[in-house]
Amino acid sequence: MEAHRESSEPAPETASAASAAAAAAASVLGDDDLLREILLRLGLPTALVRAAAVSRRWLRCASDPAFLRRFRARHPPRLLGFYVNTGDAQRLRFVPLARDPELAAVVRRGSFDLGEEAGSVRDCRNGRVLVFVGRKYVVCSPLHPGRGNDNLPEPPFPPEAYTLLYYLNDFLFYENTDDSVSCTSVTVMCSPRQAWVHLSDLQAGVWGEGRYSGMIDLPVPGTLRGCDHHELFSNGKLYMMCLPHHIVGFDLPSMSSFCIELPDAVQYEYLENIGLSCAEGSGIFLIHLKGFQISVWLYRTDCSSIGTWKLIDTICLQQAFRHLAELTWDLLPDVIRVAAVGDNADFVLLRIDHKLYYMHISSRTVEMVYEASPGHGSLYGVYPFMMPWPPTFPALNGGHDHDQ
């Protein structure tokens, strides 16, 4: 009797099912529109970068500017953490806040220690931090510690600023650039009735020749208020919250100036009752804190450059905080302060005494994210560190450098 031998060949029905499944997968993944819909649901830029390494076609779909705009609208850049300045006793400290395991791993691979001499953060954008260290300005890339730090040369300074009673000087990163060192030196000057700005751009390690904006008449004669960290660089415009009832603005391409009157219900009463935030496309968001209520306003301009304010949301903080609220708050009406605001008014960081709270605006979720030791002084500055955007895609090579 002949021994039974198992065939290594798959049964016809099994081979047919496998072939049909492969054909179905090929029909889906071979359709660029369907592929983009699949990539759109990945959720994190890190996952999108890994998917882009599959093939040239996947890279082409993932890196397409129109697709990236859709991806960003659906999955805004996440908050990885924030730097906090608690005074001389502790200087700058990074507090990680990434909850997703993949983002937490990104933070762990970075190096966020800015050194003991780091005094204050001047700007933080796209994974770069511009910090004042030991009497000089330094650009750091915490997510890419291998790049090292870059010292900024001394910028040109307008000599007439020394003759004025009041001026403000700061640095800001360019909005979108592959050069981690490119930034702008900003000096806002004020006479009793007018204000103007002097700008100089740093590119390839060299400061360009300074340029001046047009004069802007101050609605109320007097000096500008201090606006440390109340500047906003958005869509080619510089906004400065430095007047009680107005935002002073400068259009950088044309170097023209403008003044935006605040909504009737809003007033810049003290340094931390207002926050500014970039709006997607154009315009700005304004967060206004009065007592225990937050108002969210959106300012946009139409085709005739006439701007209007729209009230987007109002939040009662006593309801949002619920069990986190403390009984002593009612005795101190100004106890809550705006420490920082995320892009598109996605979130706000609120300072209450030595504690810092994160509140997601649309969902109203609140959590305490940091508490400083009383011995380390007050929270002098809070600087959000966001996931960089757009993502950096890999260069394909070898066996992966194919179309399908």
Automatic annotation (TrEMBL):
Cited Pfam families: Beta-prop_AT5G49610-like (PF23635), F-box-like (PF12937)
Residues annotated as domain F-box protein AT5G49610-like beta-propeller: 121-393
Domain F-box stretches: 32-71
Gene3D superfamilies: 1.20.1280.50
PANTHER family tied to this protein: F-BOX DOMAIN CONTAINING PROTEIN-RELATED
Protein name from the UniProt record: Uncharacterized protein
Upper taxonomic lineage: Eukaryota, Viridiplantae, Streptophyta, Embryophyta, Tracheophyta
Encoding gene per record: LOC101758685
